[in-house]
């Protein structure tokens, strides 16, 4: 495997950043993940737009243009011979002696790219079975719209899910509503058959997969109610699913161990998965 670090392609095992990288010490870094179909970046522009926004919220300059980044991301895929998979990009503020406030003198951001292969047969089999989700109290900071690598609450939530034999955790806010997943957005098809997902004015990540799926849904003549739902709503829902660059559109068949939609993937979710993948290809 080959990784990209600050202008160089290096063997994955030898790819390193400095111990005083602010991403490492302070989570002063942002990231993006693209799904890759047939060597093509899914929702390429949407992820670039969000990257630019995350960076600007932290006053970090784009390390290079979208065009140059695209070339490097594609080169990383080519060198790893990955046509079906994912590509990860991380940009930190850079390396400086540890101090909380930004360095006084400008520093160069650290740019890291890694690539991973996805076996589509395996992921389709997983989707056809559906996955379980557990709930966990929302305990993240107030800027979940910035895609930072400060993911400790997400990592702990995901571990809780794994220990319960589930694939994802849904954060639940103090009002009892689901905000989003540890690495995905949360959706249901409610009792009345309406698609529901939380609005992005709330403290959640503006998912790119979520955004594209909105277009797919509109083209299908369906509509989305951007209203939060509770775990109880989900238990009574016809279907549930999650969206993200990793999960794409993935049916949820249980919540906290109780089945949703008879414990089988829903028709709407499976159809939206197929349509999303067709569009991304
Ligand atoms: N996660 N919400 C959170 C907290 C996420 O981390 C993600 C993505 C999403 C979905 O966003 P998108 O559709 O743009 O991928 C929602 C990535 C895949 C990750 O952390 O690996």
Describe it for me?
Keywords: Amino-acid biosynthesis, Aminotransferase, Branched-chain amino acid biosynthesis, Pyridoxal phosphate, Transferase. Its cofactor is pyridoxal 5'-phosphate. Its EC number is 2.6.1.42. It comes from Phenylobacterium soli. Pfam families: Aminotran_4 (PF01063). This protein is an alpha+beta fold and 281 residues long. It folds into 2 domains: 117 residues, Aminotransferase class 4, branched-chain amino acid transferase, N-terminal domain (D-amino Acid Aminotransferase, Chain A, domain 1); 158 residues, D-amino Acid Aminotransferase, Chain A, domain 2, CATH 3.20.10.10. Strands 7, 8, 9, 10, 11, 12, 13, 14 and 15 form a 9-stranded mixed beta sheet that branches. Strands 2-1-6-5-3-4 form a 6-stranded antiparallel beta sheet. Strand 3 and strand 4 form a beta hairpin. N-(5'-phosphopyridoxyl)-D-alanine binds next to helix 6 and strand 13.
Helix and strand topology:
Layout (H helix, E strand, L loop, with lengths): L1 E4 L2 E4 L10 H5 L2 E9 L2 E2 L2 H14 L8 H14 L5 E8 L17 E8 L2 H10 L1 E7 L14 H12 L4 E5 L5 E4 L3 E5 L5 E3 L10 H12 L4 E2 L5 H5 L3 E6 L3 E8 L2 E2 L7 H14 L1
Parallel strand pairs: 7-8, 7-14, 11-12
Antiparallel strand pairs: 1-2, 1-6, 3-4, 3-5, 5-6, 8-9, 10-11, 10-13, 13-14, 14-15
The chain binds N-(5'-phosphopyridoxyl)-D-alanine (PDD).
């Amino acid at each position: 495997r080959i990784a990209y670090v600050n202008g160089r392609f290096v063997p994955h095992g030898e790819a390193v950043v400095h111990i005083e990288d602010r991403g490492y010490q302070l989570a002063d870094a942002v990231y993006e993940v693209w799904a890759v179909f047939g060597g093509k970046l899914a929702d390429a522009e949407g992820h670039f737009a969000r990257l630019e926004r995350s960076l600007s919220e932290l006053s970090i300059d784009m390390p290079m243009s979208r065009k140059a980044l695209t070339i490097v991301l594609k080169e990383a895929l080519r060198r790893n011979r990955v046509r079906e998979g994912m590509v990860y990009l991380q940009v930190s503020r850079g390396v400086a002696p540890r101090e909380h406030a930004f360095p006084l003198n400008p520093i160069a951001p650290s740019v890291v790219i890694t690539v991973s292969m996805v076996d589509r047969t395996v992921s389709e089999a997983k989707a056809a079975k559906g996955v379980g989700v557990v709930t966990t109290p929302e305990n993240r900071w107030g800027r979940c719209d910035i895609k930072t690598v400060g993911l400790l609450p997400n990592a702990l939530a995901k571990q809780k899910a794994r220990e319960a034999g589930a694939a994802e955790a849904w954060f639940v806010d103090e009002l009892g509503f689901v905000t989003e997943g540890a690495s995905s957005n949360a959706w249901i098809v409610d009792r009345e058959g309406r698609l529901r997902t939380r609005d992005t004015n709330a403290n959640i990540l503006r998912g790119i997969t979520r955004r594209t799926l909105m277009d797919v849904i509109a083209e299908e003549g369906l509509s989305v109610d951007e209203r939060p739902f509770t775990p109880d709503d989900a238990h009574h829902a016809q279907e549930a699913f999650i969206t993200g660059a990793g999960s794409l559109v993935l049916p949820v068949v249980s919540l906290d161990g109780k089945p949703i939609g008879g414990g089988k993937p829903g028709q709407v979710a499976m159809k939206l998965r197929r349509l999303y993948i067709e569009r991304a290809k």
